[in-house]
Write a structure and sequence with these properties.
The chain has about 375 residues and is an alpha+beta fold. The protein has three domains: about 120 residues, Jelly Rolls (Sandwich), CATH 2.60.120; about 55 residues; about 160 residues, Serine Threonine Protein Phosphatase 5, Tetratricopeptide repeat, CATH 1.25.40. Helix content is about 50%, strand content about 10%. The protein is built from 15 helices and seven strands. Strands 1, 2, 3, 4, 5, 6 and 7 form a seven-stranded antiparallel sheet that branches. β4 and β5 form a beta hairpin. α5 packs antiparallel against α6.
């Protein structure tokens, strides 16, 4: 990617094929206009989890809803052909629409079509019937998000249900669900589905994943943290593990495309296949730019997260340990610490779990991940 000179607050960027403009769950208030080239937006269908790809055409906006709503990106934007993109701040976008009515009309048409598609998708999720019961359907929306582990959305739906139907059929259950979410109990009420293998020890609770929304300039990782992980692994030397493959790398692989493929496989619960691609990324000898360096770091974290999902906790600890040793200032460290805390909790090593949750809280108290750590810590302390 190359940056052009800002013009009236709007920046021009040129992206090479395979580059990622932003990942799903990234947080940013930038809005983009494709000037030339081809970009694909990849997301998941609400009702089935199926991967959906949408082409961005020259002259079209993307990243608008999440920027205006100030919530994480709902899709990954990948460059297919060399593309020139205009990057606007929210202030730039507001000035643009105030001066150009056609832009407003175009955006309204786009949002109107998207809302109709979302409405159809929601009705499919809820099970469309000839007789519509808005009370029951609103509660079902909360239940859908609750069971999917998306607790912020579930809380919002339950609160709206109670606003509109304070003494209705599901009022007591909605109130109970909100209490469970706020206390952190909701996370332990959802049964995990790890890959079934003879040697895998299954956990007794759902282990939820998080992505940090903001960079952390400096995260001190004490040597004692890594020592504790070595103890967990029985004193094995992580530096000699099969995750550290820098001397065996194939040449000519496109890291962005590989990472994108692995993410797609992970989203479809194809964990073994995703894992092989993540490991292949770690075997790359040369990284071309900062974007590839960032993907290389993320691959270390994703290996740990994938093992974590599979219930292979020793391997997950090993992967997170390698990330912390190789990239002690990475903005993924807090996320790794949170996963380590959950692993220790599943393994019933509660003192260590508490220690790691406290570490996460000290580093990201105001972030969602810090709040989740605080709730889980309170749950442990109340036992």
């Amino acid at each position: 990617m190359s940056n052009g000179s800002p013009t009236q607050g709007i920046t021009t960027r040129t992206y090479k094929p395979g580059s990622i403009v932003y990942f799903e769950n990234d947080k940013s208030e930038n809005i983009y206009i494709l000037k030339s080239g081809l970009i694909i937006l990849t997301s998941q269908k609400l009702e089935t989890g199926e991967e959906v790809k949408e082409e961005v055409r020259p002259g079209e906006f993307f990243g608008v809803k999440s920027a205006l709503g100030r919530y994480p990106r709902e899709e990954t934007a990948q460059v297919i052909k060399e593309s020139v993109v205009l990057v606007l701040t929210l202030a730039d976008f507001e000035r643009l629409i105030l001066k150009n009515v056609n832009v407003v009309l175009k955006m309204l048409r786009i949002f109107s079509n998207q809302l109709r598609r979302i409405g159809r998708a929601v009705r499919e999720v809820l099970g469309e019937t000839s007789t519509i019961n808005p009370e029951e359907e609103l509660f079902k929306i909360g239940e859908y998000y609750y069971r999917a582990g998306r607790f912020n959305q579930a809380r919002y739906a339950y609160n709206k249900y109670l606003d509109y139907y304070p003494n209705a059929k599901y009022s007591d259950l909605a109130t109970k669900r909100i209490r469970e979410i706020d206390s952190g109990q909701a996370e332990s009420n959802i049964a995990p589905q790890p890959v079934k293998r003879k040697e895998v020890e299954t956990s007794s609770e759902e282990l939820k994943d998080f992505t940090l929304d903001e960079d952390i300039d400096s995260i001190p990782v004490k040597e004692s943290v890594v020592d504790e992980m070595d103890d967990f692994l029985g004193g094995d030397d992580v530096s000699g593990s099969d995750l550290d493959l820098a001397d065996e790398s194939p040449k000519g692989e496109d890291i962005s495309s590989m990472f994108y493929d692995a993410m797609s496989l992970y989203s479809q619960s194809e964990y073994e296949s995703a894992l092989q691609i993540y490991k292949k990324i770690l075997s790359q000898k040369s990284l071309k730019n900062d974007a590839e360096n960032k993907i290389y770091q993320k691959a270390h974290f994703e290996i740990g997260r994938t093992y974590f999902k599979m219930g292979q906790y020793n391997e997950a600890v090993e992967a997170f340990s390698l990330l912390m040793k190789k990239f002690p200032q990475s903005d993924l460290i807090v996320n790794a610490l949170y996963h380590l805390a959950m692993i220790y909790e599943v393994k019933k090593q509660f003192d260590k779990a508490k220690s790691y949750y406290q570490k996460v809280i000290s580093l990201a108290a105001k972030e969602e991940i810090g709040k989740q750590a605080s709730r889980r810590l309170k749950n442990l302390e109340s036992r």
